[in-house]
Design a protein that fits this description.
Pfam families: Glycos_transf_2. This protein has 10 helices and 12 strands. With about 290 residues, the protein is an alpha/beta fold. Helix 1 packs parallel to helix 2 and helix 9 packs antiparallel against helix 10. The longest helix is centred in the C-terminal third of the chain and has 27 residues.
Length: about 290
Amino acid sequence: MNPPSLSVVIPAYNEEEIIGECLTRLAEQREHIAEVLVVDNNSTDRTTEIVAEQAARWPAIRLIGEAEQGLVHARNRGLDSAVGDLIARIDADTLVPPDWARQIVDFFAADTSGHWAAACGRGQAYDLPYGDTVGTLRQRWRERKAHRVKQVPVLYGSNMILRQHTWALIRDRVAMRRDVFEDVDTGLCVTEVGGRNAFLPTITVGVAPRRMATGMVSFTRYMSCLPRTLLLHKRYGLALGAATVYLPPIIVLHAARLVLLRTYDTRTGRFAPTELFRKTPERVAP
């Protein structure tokens, strides 16, 4: 049997700083990728120009547009347009490792019974001024247990894969709201139609730490999407646990992390307390 074909969907909104590197890394794995669909969601910078330049070197890259503003609209446009047996959805700031596509194709090719409907890996932030020692140690531990694929209830939006027929099953179930976590919602929709989500410990991707640099109010508002998403799916116990047990320590951790990030002077490569008061652009949700 031929291995399943893989499409990669990338919603993009003003991503000129990183979209080129994202596509370059995918192009290096063209042997295992049938197409890359970049869905421009009304970018006002050079995003579309950079994508066009990359497409001139690798025609498998296609630029399509979605006029309705919002990640869920761009995501749906891309997933609906994909022709692969498998559809990976990553972010424009996702930097995939060298064997990412091969491992995805091999995993689903080996799943001849169709046991897994979808899969995801984790994301590890890059370009952190203080490094990511914890994330690196966690990744090494996972690599030692690489054979231990486990079932998870949700998916991770920067690094997720759906079978084509799985997307067809949940297409009319996914929420089109912008105040919920669309990846958590997608994963829960998969389980609600009887599918299983696999967590693959060996396909960790790099993700930009932009969300980590957002202010406390913005971050708290963002994280409140988690219990709201769980409530949407009537997971009342999980929603209560998320709101009362999970979110408070995460918000405290973010406050400490924010001090480190904002006191780091990118120009000198040193920490400077005065940098804490400089204005930092917030992560804009598309």
